[in-house]
């Protein structure tokens, strides 16, 4: 696990000093006087009474003054969270105009101070949503990205289609797909697959103990612990035998570290200071872990199917690499785009004999 | 959750004009960044436009982009249906029926209250 906590390292990467956990460049005094000024101008519910909308406007201003990205979104998520909602848009009109209690204001302030240190919103709130699941989030375990929701859809579609195909041929029992996830992080992919494919089982592995613990915690919170087996293991150092305890694997899914090493330094402070860099850095060509997974796949797979999330430059690179390693008998079956139109997901299969 | 299921069943019973993806234009507030692992933007707002009618829906109801996309399509489908069918739209009819039910409930509650007040007054008179 690598986290950029060394001050010199951060300085060399030109990261803002307020990135240091525990330190903030904005002193408490400065925040209070800004608040007093704002209160005089913007208390819509009456003198000294701040509503949710007032709070959002206030903290948005504070974040903007301090160069915090997504100032408005951050303050909206924090205020909504304290009011028990997921997003600001989902709050009803009544709630929006009700003055906040002192406790609520204090909670918002406490969370906002963390955001002032460039902590990602998901870590500030300690939770985030992925599809229909609310998952606990904790640094430095990798925060699931919204694009990855599409990766889950692709695996689900493939599995449902297999069900349909087999039903058309002759009556067969509903299959119980065994899915292997490599690099499970917070458990987002594994757990949402378990929810969408009620007959499935998942083997989830991660080389970081913090990730294994968090996946386990999220599995228990969602009552899915009976259907998931979580292993603390590095895919680079594991054997096929260890992974075949539930029989041959139907699908491998992964969002492996795929960032090109030279691009790591230009990532936002939120990522560099708080997330596990090993969950991001894919080596010189971003393909170190991708190659490891593909090399392991043939000895694991019963049928076919490796689904990977990758950098937009990887589809061609992976295709060439597979052609250069014909002994693996794998082909690139499909490339899928993410919701921003970027080639993001690869579907690799065993070649039909 | 139960309320969501009820809403879904209700929606499924409405006959609405189908929207094809080809008629839709979708936008996300993501910026030009690399996306994927390299970015951690939390704005999952979906802006969905129905090109033929020009109707635009903005959805940021959940923290999941896929759910927002789904909800945006549902809301847009209702609005497009209303736009083309007007009072013939099932959406309009349902809203009208719901409004009628609400008014009916109010009227009945008012009547009951008046009846109770009258009864009380009469009891007072009997005592005197």
UniProtKB/TrEMBL annotation, chain B:
Compositional bias per record (Basic and acidic residues), positions renumbered to this chain: 110-128
Limits of the Prokaryotic-type class I peptide chain release factors domain: 17-117
UniProt main location, coarse: mitochondrion
Single Gene Ontology MF annotation: translation release factor activity
Membrane-spanning parts: none
Keyword Disulfide bond: no
Annotated protein name in UniProt: CL065 factor
PANTHER family according to UniProt: MITOCHONDRIAL TRANSLATION RELEASE FACTOR IN RESCUE, PROBABLE PEPTIDE CHAIN RELEASE FACTOR C12ORF65
Keywords in alphabetical order: Mitochondrion, Transit peptide
Keyword Transit peptide among record annotations: yes
Region (Disordered): 94-128
Intracellular or extracellular location(s): Mitochondrion
GO cellular component entries: mitochondrion
Family to which this protein belongs: Belongs to the prokaryotic/mitochondrial release factor family.
Segment forming the signal sequence: none
């Amino acid at each position: 696990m690598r986290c950029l906590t060394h001050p010199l390292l951060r300085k060399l990467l030109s990261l803002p000093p307020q990135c240091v956990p525990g330190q903030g460049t904005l002193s408490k005094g400065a925040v209070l006087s800004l608040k007093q000024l704002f209160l005089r101008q913007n208390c819509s519910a009456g003198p000294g009474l701040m509503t949710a909308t007032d709070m959002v406007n206030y903290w948005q201003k504070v974040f903007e003054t301090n160069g915090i990205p997504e100032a408005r979104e951050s303050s909206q998520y924090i205020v909504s969270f304290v009011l028990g909602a997921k997003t600001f848009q989902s709050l009803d009109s009544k709630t929006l105009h009700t003055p906040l209690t002192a406790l609520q204001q204090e909670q918002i302030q406490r969370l906002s101070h963390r955001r002032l240190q460039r902590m990602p919103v998901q870590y500030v709130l300690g939770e985030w949503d992925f599809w229909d699941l609310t998952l606990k989030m904790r640094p430095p375990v990798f925060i699931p990205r919204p694009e990855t929701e599409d990766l889950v859809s692709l695996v689900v579609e493939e599995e449902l289609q297999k069900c349909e195909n087999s039903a058309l041929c002759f009556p067969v029992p509903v299959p119980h797909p065994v899915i292997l996830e490599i690099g499970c992080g917070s458990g987002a992919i594994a757990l949402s697959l378990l929810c969408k494919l009620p007959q499935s089982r998942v083997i989830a592995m991660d080389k970081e103990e913090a990730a294994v613990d968090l996946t386990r915690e999220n599995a228990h919170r969602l009552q899915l612990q009976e259907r998931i087996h979580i292993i603390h293991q590095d895919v680079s150092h594991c054997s096929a035998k260890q992974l075949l305890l539930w029989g041959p694997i139907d699908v491998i899914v992964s969002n492996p570290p795929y960032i090109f090493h030279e691009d790591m330094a230009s990532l936002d402070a939120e990522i560099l200071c708080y997330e596990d860099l090993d969950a991001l850095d894919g080596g010189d060509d971003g393909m170190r872990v991708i190659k490891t997974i593909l090399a392991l796949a043939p000895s694991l797979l019963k049928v076919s199917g490796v689904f990977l999330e990758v950098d937009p430059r990887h589809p061609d690179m992976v295709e060439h690499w597979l052609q250069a390693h014909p002994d693996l008998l794998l082909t690139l079956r499909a490339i899928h785009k993410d919701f921003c139109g970027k080639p993001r997901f690869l579907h690799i299969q065993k070649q039909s004999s | 959750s139960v309320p969501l299921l009820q809403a879904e069943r209700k929606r499924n019973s409405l006959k609405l004009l189908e929207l094809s993806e080809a008629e839709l234009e979708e936008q996300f507030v993501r910026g030009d960044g690399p996306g994927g692992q390299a970015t951690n933007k939390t704005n999952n707002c979906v802006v969905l436009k129905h090109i033929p009618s020009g109707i635009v829906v903005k959805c940021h109801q959940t923290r999941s982009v896929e759910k927002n996309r789904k909800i945006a399509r549902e809301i847009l489908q209702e609005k497009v249906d209303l736009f083309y069918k007007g009072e013939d739209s099932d959406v309009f009819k349902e809203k009208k029926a719901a409004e009628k039910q609400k008014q009916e409930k109010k009227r009945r509650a008012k009547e009951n209250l008046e009846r109770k007040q009258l009864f009380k007054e009469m009891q007072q008179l009997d005592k005197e």
